[in-house]
Amino acid sequence: MAALSTTARFALRRNITSQSSNLSFNAARTYATAGKNASLKETFAASLPQKQEQIKKLRKDHGSKVLGEVTLDQVYGGARGIKSLVWEGSVLDSEEGIRFRGRTIPECQEQLPKAPGGSEPLPEGLFWLLLTGEVPTEQQVRDLSAEWAARSDVPSFITELIDRCPSDLHPMAQFSLAVTALEHESAFSKAYARGMKKTEYWEHTFEDSMDTIANLPTIAARIYRNVFKDGKVPAVQKDKDYGYNLAQQLGFAENHDFVELMRLYLTIHSDHEGGNVSAHTTHLVGSALSSPMLSLSAGLNGLAGPLHGLANQEVLNWLQEMKKSVGSDLSDENITKYLWDTLKSGRVVPGYGHAVLRKTDPRYVSQREFALKHLPDDPMFKLVSQVYKIAPGVLTEHGKTKNPYPNVDAHSGVLLQYYGLTEQNFYTVLFGVSRAIGVLPQLIIDRAVGMPIERPKSFSTEAYAKLVGATL
Predict the structure, then answer these.
(1) Which GO-annotated molecular functions does the record name (predicted)?
(2) Which of 122, 137, 130 is nearest to 263 (CA)?
(3) Which of 324, 340, 389, 404 has minimal CB crowding within 10 Å?
(4) Cα 407 to Cα 390: distance, rounded to the nearest angstrom
(5) Helix (H) or strand (E) holding 92
């Protein structure tokens, strides 16, 4: 498919959003435009006056109230647990797990619209929910699918940039590079350079976010096809949903179950509160009024780290090592011995434990239920199930893990392997496509409610010692 010129892309954008391009979040008339048939931009614009008033009143009435104390351990422990960020889309409870706008993952699976003949929620619906707080209608989701497909043509220079990357450059580095280069198309940056009102920030952030999300499947697929396959990428099918198009551009659309897995994967990996590295970094860079492209790229660079998004790859490597060692003997005794051998060697059990959660990650549970439905007899899934049965007890006895239960990374790699997507270096790119759906709604909200640049106070170790009355 020929890439659109910059002029053509902006013309398409104006056409797509012509009904809502003149909306102002200060205009009371936006309430009248929102309804069951309203576009995403109209629905979001209609909600802004109320949200702005909520924040204004909250700060006026309670701005001086203390939310908690900060300990020196928290300062030196990665700011763990410090209440200091605003994140509207999701809240992570240590016992309940993640809630998207107050809804659990099972509730989202039940309530969000699905593709015809499908059983998993469409990520378009979650994006709508994260941005507006409302569950969209089926027609609204179909319209959003069509809009993303209409915006999906990747500029030719981005395609050339990816094609020029050496095949041994990590897929995540290529992904971040391509998203950074999308800055060339940024409506926000162009409007800021011309001069615009602060009340217009969110609209241009919205347009950039929509364009970026629409481009990601083709960018990800081109990287995958270049590095691991024949370099040929199928065109986006304009009448299909986002998850389907990602699957078919990767080369897996003939398998309906894999398409369903992509819809589930993109939904559950999208958002996990604002304090994780990729979410916080996107928010932080965006607070400097960097474009959504530059902000997301920064977040993707954080996601690429082994302590964050790369973890699912490490889990799969460990499981494959275990399978070679234990063979077909998945007895409780054999798995218990392998787990203890892992711990006694000074290694951790990857995929177990979480910075916040103190129970099994609901994202893990949703993937487990998918596996029970679609691949109950797969040998690797049986291994994962046995580890799930045995590991919590071993880790509890070991005593050095606050949460002995599995997180999302403990399962996703096995599902991808089963359907033939075996290239582990690509897994974090899939995570990155999903994470964009979670972090960009918050970036739009940040600009809409006027969130300032983020600038916490820092001290040296000597200064902290003085603050607590210590002698170094």
Answers:
(1) 2-methylcitrate synthase activity; citrate synthase activity
(2) 122
(3) 324
(4) 15
(5) strand 90-93
Q: How far is Cα 152 from Cα 215, in angstroms, rounded to an integer?
A: 5
CA dist., res. 432 & res. 296, Å (int): 9
Look-up: residue for tokens 């006694």? 344
Directed axis angle between helix 409-418 and helix 256-268, to 10°?
160
Residue type, 185: E
8-state DSSP, 252: -
**DSSP character for 3?**
P
Q: Cα–Cα distance between 262 and 138 in angstroms, integer?
A: 19
**Cross-strand pairs, 93:** 97
Give residues with Cβ within 8 angstroms of 341, minimum separation 6. none
Q: Which helix (H) or strand (E) holds 379?
A: helix 379-398
Tokens at 443, concatenated: 């970036």
Nearest-angstrom CA–CA distance, 36 and 29: 16
**171 sits in which H/E element:** helix 171-181
pLDDT tens for 366-409 read 999 999 999 999 999 999 999 999 999 999 999 877 788 998 88
Active site residues: 308, 354, 409
In degrees and rounded to multiples of 5, residue 388 shows phi and psi of -60, -35
Beta-strand (E) ranges in 346-417? none
Distance CA 220, CA 237 (A): 16
CA dihedral 278, 284, 290, 294 (to 10 degrees): -20
Beta bridge partners of 259: none
* Tokens 């983020």 -> residue: 454
d(C-alpha 332, C-alpha 315), whole Å = 20
For 220-259, write each residue's pLDDT tens digit: 999 999 999 999 999 999 999 999 999 999 999 899 999 9
Quick check: 339 and 387 in contact, CB under 8 A? yes
175 burial class (0-12, 13-18, 19+ CB within 10 angstroms)? buried
CA distances in angstroms from 195 to 152, 186, 200, listed in the order given: 28, 14, 10
Angstrom distance (rounded) from CA 274 to CA 264: 21
3-state secondary structure 15-39: HHCCCCCCCCCCCCCHHHHCCCCCC
